[in-house]
Amino acid sequence: MTIFGRIIRILGGLVSVAVIFLAITIGWLIQSKQGPAEGIFFATIFPLLSFKLPATIIGHGRMSGVEPVPEKLMPHERPEHEMFLDLPFGQRMPMNGLGMCCRPTAYDDELVKRTTLWYLMLGGRLIDTAHIYLNHKAVGHGIQEAQERGIAREEIFVTSKHWPRMFGYETTKQLVPTFLKELGVDYIDLLLMHAPAGMLMPSIKSSECSEKKLSNKQCREETWRALDELRQQGLLRNIGVSNFGKHHLQELQEMKLPSPIAVNQITYNPWAPDYQVETFEYCQEQNIAVTAYASLGGFLQKSKAESTVVLSELSESYNKTVAQIMLRWAIQKGAAVIPGTGNPKHMRENLAAYEFEISEDDMKRIAELRNDEEAKKYFYMEPPKE
Length: 386
Known about the structure:
Blueprint: H1 3-31, H2 37-49, H3 55-58, E1 84-86, E2 92-94, E3 98-99, H4 109-121, E4 126-128, H5 136-148, E5 157-162, H6 169-183, E6 190-193, H7 207-211, H8 216-232, E7 239-242, H9 246-253, E8 263-267, H10 274-285, E9 289-293, H11 302-306, H12 309-318, H13 322-333, E10 335-337, H14 344-351, H15 360-367
Parallel strand pairs: 3-4, 4-5, 5-6, 6-7, 7-8, 8-9, 9-10
Antiparallel strand pairs: 1-2
């Protein structure tokens, strides 16, 4: 056999092993009782990317990264200059929250409970989670302990999200009440459709929508109708969307249901591409509040953002961290922010974004970053077209 033939044979063997491994992995995800397959994948991959064994493999309570909350810690006052976004039915959503996704400590139940409790005890009040994050119960335990320490449920704003593979009228009506049970609450302040369709594979729909042979548009409409009814029943205070483009928003608005779109949660930071800026501006025109995720550059690009010359200069000028500058920029643009951390020191720093103001000229300097060549190197996942 020639050397070339041997190489082909070896490569063929490696491909076979990879296919078998992939098949086993997919089977494990599908058969697992831990939650949605996509959620298990993310809960596994994010810790591994940080060279940590995930709770999906070693079990909950065995990871490190969030220190215990002292038993004698008393609740801190809410931030003195706290800011809010007005929602359609009279509620006000804090503009500075805590994201419960996309880092190793967001997928271990004990660490999630500690993180939630720390944040609430330090004065924060907006918790952002999702069904696919697999941490509803742990977030709920943190909220419950915060209530036991003197923080009223009415002060806490809970956001969760409904994953596209679970869309459909009947599926939504059956599934959403389980979110409340998992969180241990009587109502959810804001529930979002997590995306207009599967972000990676839009053609894969929920079982219900597939059986009914619904298009993605029809599937969204059926889901929105169910959410509207659940809001009118009192299970949800507000309903909204996430990762929706302008045309997706317009489709729901054309339904003219009693519940308007309260919020659109999108990737938004100084490097946002044109389509995202267009969506942001449309939301502002339509009185749809915007929550910005990845406001610090995102999981894969945070270090790049922190080394940006303009932001470093402003950090020194204002005597604030680069993260605080970026959070304050988004807040002043009119977006709520939900930076994720399990570190109490960083929580305090993030909440301190309420305490200063960026000048108009410096706001423009930051906004101009999107015209820089570096902006083209940032990764954004564009919403599905259909």
